[in-house]
Amino acid sequence: MKLNPIIAGNWKMFKTGKEAVEFISVFAPKVKNSSVDIYIAPPFTAIYQAAAAAKGSSILIGAQNMHAEQEGAYTGEISAGMIKAAGAEFVILGHSERRQHFHETDEGVNLKVKSALKAGLIVILCVGEMQSEHDQGLTEEVLRRQIEGGLKDITAEEAASLVIAYEPVWAIGTGKTATPELAESAHAFIRKLLTEQYGEKLASQISILYGGSVKPELTPDLMEMPNINGALVGGASLKIETFAAIVAGATK
Ligand code: PEP
Predict the structure, then answer these.
(1) CA distance linking residue 51 with residue 39, whole number of Å
(2) CA distance 100 to 104
């Protein structure tokens, strides 16, 4: 079964609510006839306005992170229920910038995945090896640890709302995109891990996105690979023209 492509934009710590509305009001008409599923994750503070601006379009708005607890004395944190109430329909979890700068572990990511799925959010779980791990040939070991750890005790029913993003850390924000063949080999391995946990049928229905310096001109070749079902895009999702060109590239 060919999965419908997903192109997801991770805006990181860029754009205010007003800027998000301006972006979506110009971007949405450009992608109106696209068959691609388009996701945008603005900062927390722009979710409500972005979701209102995206209403009536096929763009889903989501968050880039959340806390695993529903509520409590966690100053500065935001829960799954809160982002959902603000208009988020998905959440990115375990992004390498969260793992690197905020010391997120597979155990902590797993608690967030459980909480997000329980709240009815789609989860984009990010995995991927660092440059040193890549150089030492440890990619599969890292992916196994992150997938098995991140999805521990996630049932098959819950896994239906799951998307995986393979993001080699050495490719994020560096301009160094993985070759389609190299990405495909990691994606095929992730599919194998999902098959071990959920069986072939369900594993074949889980979208696996590639992330790491995705550019418009590289999108069609990436999308041709059998296990690449879309892209998670950072820098290039901040500009209307480039993000729309990536969506167009995923359509062909
Ligand atoms: C990301 O932040 O998930 C990402 C892939 O960033 P970039 O496209 O800028 O490499």
Answers:
(1) 11
(2) 7
Express each pLDDT in 42-93 by its tens digit.
999 999 999 999 999 999 999 999 999 999 999 999 999 999 999 999 999 9
pLDDT digits 0-9 by tens, 149-167: 999 999 999 999 999 999 9
Ligand 1 atom at shortest distance from the alpha carbon of 167: 5
Compute the distance from residue 235 Cα to the ligand 1 centre, in Å: 6
Question: Ligand 1 centroid vs 174 CA: distance in angstroms?
Answer: 9
What is the rounded CA–CA span in Å between residue 108 and residue 117? 15
Atom of ligand 1 nearest to the CA of 95: 3
Q: CB burial class (10 A; 0-12, 13-18, 19+) of residue 144?
A: middle
Q: Which residues pair with 122 in a beta bridge?
A: 90
Catalytic residue check, 200: no
Please indicate whether residue 22 is annotated as part of the active site. Answer: no
The pair of three-digit structure tokens given for residue 19, joined into one six-digit string: 């800027």
User: In whole numbers, what is the pLDDT of the chain averaged over residues?
Assistant: 97
